[in-house]
Design a protein that fits this description.
The protein is mostly helical. It contains 3 helices and no strands. It has a domain at 3-64.
Length: 90
């Protein structure tokens, strides 16, 4: 693996571990969980961007849907994403 991808994967793992620590506490402060979530999103985006730039492979996180979205909205967004990917590929 490339050093940049290794480093990004390590940062993602650290961010996930820190998030789990915060989320697993008996009392979870909204500010702390929001900050931990932002760090995970940032690390995931960095990792996915590096993987894409090296391999051209889309993000491994594309299929992770927001649990706040209801099923019809999630299906619609997935269909739109797939259509855009097909257009980009052709």
């Amino acid at each position: 693996m490339s050093k940049k991808i290794d480093r990004a994967a390590s940062e993602l793992k650290k961010a996930l571990t820190a998030h789990a620590k915060v989320a697993g506490k008996k009392k979870v402060s909204k500010g702390r969980i929001d900050k931990a979530s932002a760090r995970v999103r940032s690390a995931a985006n960095s990792y996915a961007g590096l993987v894409y730039s090296k391999t051209g492979v889309d993000s491994p996180f594309l299929d992770i849907r927001d649990p706040r979205l209801d099923t019809p909205v999630a299906i619609s967004l997935k269909a739109e994403r797939d259509a855009l990917a097909r257009r980009r590929a052709s």
